[in-house]
Amino acid sequence: xxxxxxxxxxDKPFFALAPMYDVTDAAFRRIIAKxxxxxxxxxxxxxxxxxxHPEGREKLMHHLWFDESERPVVAQVFxxxxxxxxxxxxxxxxxxxxxxxxxxxxxxxxxxxxxxxAALIQEPTLARDIIAATLAGAGDMSVSVxxxxxxxxxxxxxxxxxxxxxxxxHVTVHLRTRKEMSxxxxxxxxxxxxxxxxxxxxxxxxxxxxxxxxxxxxxxxLAQETGCDGIMIGRGVFGxxxxxxxxxxxxxxxxxxxxxxxHTQLFSELFTDVKNFAIMKKHYKAYANGFENxxxxxxxxxxxxxxxxxxxxVDKFLQTNx
Length: 322
Ligand SMILES: Cc1cc2nc3c(=O)[nH]c(=O)nc-3n(C[C@H](O)[C@H](O)[C@H](O)COP(=O)(O)O)c2cc1C
Description:
TIM Barrel; 2 domains; 8-stranded parallel β-barrel; 15% strand; binds flavin mononucleotide
C-alpha cells in the first residue's frame, strides 16, 4: 500500500524546488518560501551514515534546519546502510519533516564510489532494502525517491519497477543517465513512457519530471504533454527566488539586489561558523546578471567577505546607477 501523505493533496501539476547541495540551504529555502510558493521544498542532501554518529550529527544537523514557511518540506538523504536510513527517518519524523527523500541519482564520483547516489541504480536489491528500511522508520512522513533514467545507459524499464514495487509516495525522475551528468539536454521524450509504466505497475505513486525546466509555463506545458504529476526545478531558481509564482513579475534591478542582500544577511545569521561565506558567491553570479554594469558589480561582490560588505556594495551601486 502506498502512503501518499501530503503528496496526494497537491493540485497538479505541482512544482517542487530541487535539492541542491550548498545552494538550497536553510537560508535560500527561506528566501524562496518568502518570495514565491513552490508546492514542495527539498533540502540539500545529507548523509545518513554521518547523521547516525554523534559527532557527525553535530556537524551535519544544519542541513536539517527548516522554517515553518517552507512546508511541505522534505529532507533529502543519501547513504548505503539500510539500518541507518531507518534511524534517520525516525530522526526526520521527530524533527517534523513532511517527507523524506532518498537520493538514488547523484552522479558525483565521490558519492558513486561509496556505492550510493546513482550507484544504487546498479544495486536494485540494496535500493529496495533501503526503501523498506526508510518506510519502517518514517512514521507519518511520506517516503520518496529521486533518481535518473539509468547509470551508463538508459535503463528505465529495468530500474523503475524496483522503485514502483517498493510503494513510495513519489518518484522524481531526472531525465538523464549518470554518465550524462548534466551535459546533454534532459530526455523529456521518455516522460510519457515513464508515466505509462507507473500506470501499469503502481497507480498510487506520483511522478515528477526534472531537467532543464526554467519557467512555470514551460513546466505546465511539459506536464500537459507527458502526463506527469509534477515538475521539479533546480538551476532555474538561481538568482530568481520568485520563480515559483504564476504571474510573470517584472522584477526591478533594485528589488532583485535587495533580495540578494536579505539572502546574504540570513545566510550570515544562520551559518556564521557553520558554512563558508564563499558559498554565497555562486548566488551573486546569478543575482548580478543581465543588467547594465552587472559585471562590474559582480567583480566587487566576489571580493566581499561579509553581509555588511555586500549591503554597502549594493547601496553604492544603486546610488550610482539607478
Ligand atoms: C549545485 C547543485 C547541487 C545539487 N545537489 C543535489 C542534491 O543534493 N541532491 C539531488 O538529488 N540532486 C542534486 N542536484 C541535482 C538537481 O536536484 C537537479 O536534479 C538537476 O540540477 C537538474 O535539474 P535542473 O535542470 O532543473 O537544474 C544538484 C544540482 C546542482 C546544480
